[in-house]
Amino acid sequence: xxxxxxxxxxxxxxxxxxxxxxxxxxxxxxxxxxxxxxxxxxxxxxxxxxxxxxxxxxxxxxxxxxxxxxxxxxxxxxxxxxxxxxxxxxxxxxxxxxxxxxxxxxxxxxxxxxxxxxxxxxxxxxxxxxxxxxx
Length: 135
Fold this sequence. Notes:
The chain is mostly helical. It is built from four helices and two strands; from the N terminus they run ααααββ. The protein has helices spanning 2-29, 32-64, 66-82, 88-91; strands at residues 110-111, 116-117. A hairpin with a 4-residue loop joins strand 1 and strand 2.
């Protein structure tokens, strides 16, 4: 089972990297007024998959065996993660925020008088979280 541990580690790293890219893409390409709604639907559908998977894995393992179900699940996971990259629109998704490349440019800086972020010009909505996934 060392291969399963290694595969789980790689899947965890891949999931983390894709989550960062996904959240950044949402923040850059979804209008501010719709971002909350889009994020809510994203979370709902993502978390809905957990109980569906838990309800189906037992009967599938009993019917086909745990090794076969684990192997097919892992391969299916790889296909589902890589499949969006087949779309040219995803591969060529432009970065909408430009900066000099310096780390200091990625830190949010609010101008107290104007109530705007000095990095992107966003109006302070008291959450201050719109830059914590760096562009």
